[in-house]
């Protein structure tokens, strides 16, 4: 297959979306056909998927507007009125617990002039009040107070029509909160499919569930969000080269891992929804932080989760839930890659631990996470440098015409009867190919909000 370059222009009428009695054009139409940019069969990706602003705008409307997106951890909402703010794509969102104990999520934009209703990162409140003109909303999103409201009487005014915009669906799973703007999205459990089995190896080790500690670490990186999401889903291949110095520091001898560790066998799971995870497999798979390793009863974990999970995805590995939620079991790191234009992302990272962990073990895992990942982590800095380097040169004319190679592991996918779903070798681009295939499928499919009404 020959990679097809993007057209310089596109034409067509924009679809209309009603908002009350108001209709206006939405998104890019007829949109850019990305079929020639992703060649899953031959493992080729056009570099413009990382650099083209038109594609970025289209993926906001067709990938982020339609997919289940990670919002946070249920531990961040303890009682009624607790809230935190985050993003769904580039849309700012308030996540809160209402008076009935229900978790809800709203667009963080006042219906009056569009300013953010809430500017704090987290806290507790009885109502959300915009600091521009004072419109105020309750925990259920209803508009409850409008200064000088008498001025609206001649305009057929009804507060009920001007509440906060709520997400179409919200679900919690294994302590995590996901939501979507898409009223027609399949249930979250169906979207995850077999991926949930792998997630349970990380998030269901403790019958009491998980907790988050240490707040949220946030930093900005130059690089397209997909570079990070695909790596966490598919790329064990970079570890021995990119992280060579970090592996030397962490090894007992100071010379790096032994050959049998550096060339470890393993498996990589991927599915048609774009989810992916890879992990070494070893009968003595263990946690890196010594206090964490000593805390766990691996025989009990085998009884709870099964031998395959304990020897595989329980500890060392990497994973991405499409499109932009990723995690690392070995240090309890979960993160979301917030898109901030085609050339930049904002990374938000949490440390997730089992609730039953004693304080000294929690501290050891949290510190191990900070030392290895996060903006000052010895592994994280390597990754950020790689992504920024790729993005920095990808706008060059000749550079941007050369397809990228995602061919490793083609033909190795199979159902092995040990790990659910389709898996390939650990050193493989299989999950990357499926990640971009899913991206291309959504990019070429009219979204729910593009339907003519």
TrEMBL record:
UniProt keyword Amino-acid biosynthesis present: no
Domain called Rieske: residue spans: 68-151
Superkingdom: Bacteria
PROSITE patterns (alphabetical): RIESKE, RING_HYDROXYL_ALPHA
Keywords for this protein: 2Fe-2S, Aromatic hydrocarbons catabolism, Dioxygenase, Iron, Iron-sulfur, Metal-binding, NAD, Oxidoreductase
InterPro entries for this protein: ARHD_Rieske_2Fe_2S (IPR015881), RHO_NdoB-like_C (IPR043266), Rieske_2Fe-2S (IPR017941), Rieske_2Fe-2S_sf (IPR036922), Ring_hydroxy_dOase_asu_C_dom (IPR015879), Rng_hydr_dOase-A (IPR001663)
Pfam families: Rieske, Ring_hydroxyl_A
E.C. number: 1.14.12.19
Enzyme class name: oxidoreductase
SUPFAM superfamilies, alphabetized: Bet v1-like, ISP domain
Record-level Gene Ontology MF annotations: 2 iron, 2 sulfur cluster binding; 3-phenylpropionate dioxygenase activity; iron ion binding; monooxygenase activity
UniProt-listed CDD domains: RHO_alpha_C_NDO-like
Disordered: annotated span: 1-20
Record family assignment: Belongs to the bacterial ring-hydroxylating dioxygenase alpha subunit family.
Protein name (Swiss-Prot/TrEMBL): 3-phenylpropionate/cinnamic acid dioxygenase subunit alpha
Species this protein is from: Microbacterium azadirachtae
């Amino acid at each position: 297959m020959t990679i097809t370059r993007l057209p310089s222009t596109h034409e067509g009428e924009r679809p209309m979306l009603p908002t009350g009695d108001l209709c206006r054009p939405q998104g890019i139409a007829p949109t850019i056909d990305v079929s020639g940019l992703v060649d899953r069969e031959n493992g080729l990706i056009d570099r413009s998927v990382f650099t083209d602003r038109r594609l970025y705008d289209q993926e906001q409307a067709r990938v982020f507007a339609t997919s289940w997106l990670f919002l946070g951890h249920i531990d961040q909402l303890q009682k009624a009125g607790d809230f935190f703010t985050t993003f769904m794509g580039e849309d700012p969102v308030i996540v809160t617990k209402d008076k009935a104990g229900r978790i809800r999520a709203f667009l963080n934009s006042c219906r009056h002039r569009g300013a953010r209703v809430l500017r704090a990162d987290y806290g507790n409140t009885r109502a959300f009040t915009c600091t521009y003109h004072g419109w105020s909303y309750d925990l259920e999103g209803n508009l409850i107070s409008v200064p000088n409201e008498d001025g609206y009487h001649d305009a057929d005014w009804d507060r009920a029509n001007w509440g906060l915009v709520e997400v179409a669906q919200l679900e919690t799973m294994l302590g995590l909160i996901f939501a979507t703007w898409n009223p027609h999205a399949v249930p979250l459990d169906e979207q995850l499919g077999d991926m949930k089995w792998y997630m349970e190896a990380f998030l269901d080790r403790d019958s009491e569930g998980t907790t988050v500690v240490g707040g949220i670490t946030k930093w900005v990186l130059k690089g397209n969000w997909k570079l990070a999401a695909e790596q966490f889903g598919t790329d064990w291949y970079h570890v021995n080269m990119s992280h060579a110095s970090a592996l030397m520091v962490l090894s007992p001898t100071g010379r790096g891992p032994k050959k049998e560790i550096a060339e470890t066998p393993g498996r990589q799971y991927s599915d048609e929804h774009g989810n992916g995870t890879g992990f070494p497999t070893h009968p003595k798979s263990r946690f890196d932080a010594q206090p964490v390793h000593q805390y766990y009863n691996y025989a009990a974990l085998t009884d709870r989760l099964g031998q395959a999970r304990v020897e595989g995805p329980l500890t060392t590995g990497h994973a991405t839930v499409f499109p932009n939620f990723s995690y690392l079991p070995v240090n309890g790191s979960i993160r979301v890659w917030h898109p901030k234009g085609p050339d930049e992302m904002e990374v938000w990272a949490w440390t997730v631990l089992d609730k039953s962990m004693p304080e000294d073990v929690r501290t050891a895992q949290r510190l191990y996470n900070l030392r290895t990942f996060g903006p000052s982590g010895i592994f994280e800095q390597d990754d950020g440098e790689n992504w920024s380097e790729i993005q920095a040169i990808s706008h060059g004319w000749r550079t941007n015409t050369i397809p990228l190679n995602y061919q490793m592991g083609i033909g190795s996918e199979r159902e092995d009867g040990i790990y659910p779903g389709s898996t390939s070798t650990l050193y493989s681009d299989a999950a990357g190919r499926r990640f971009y295939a899913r991206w291309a499928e959504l990019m070429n499919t009219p979204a729910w909000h593009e339907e003519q009404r």
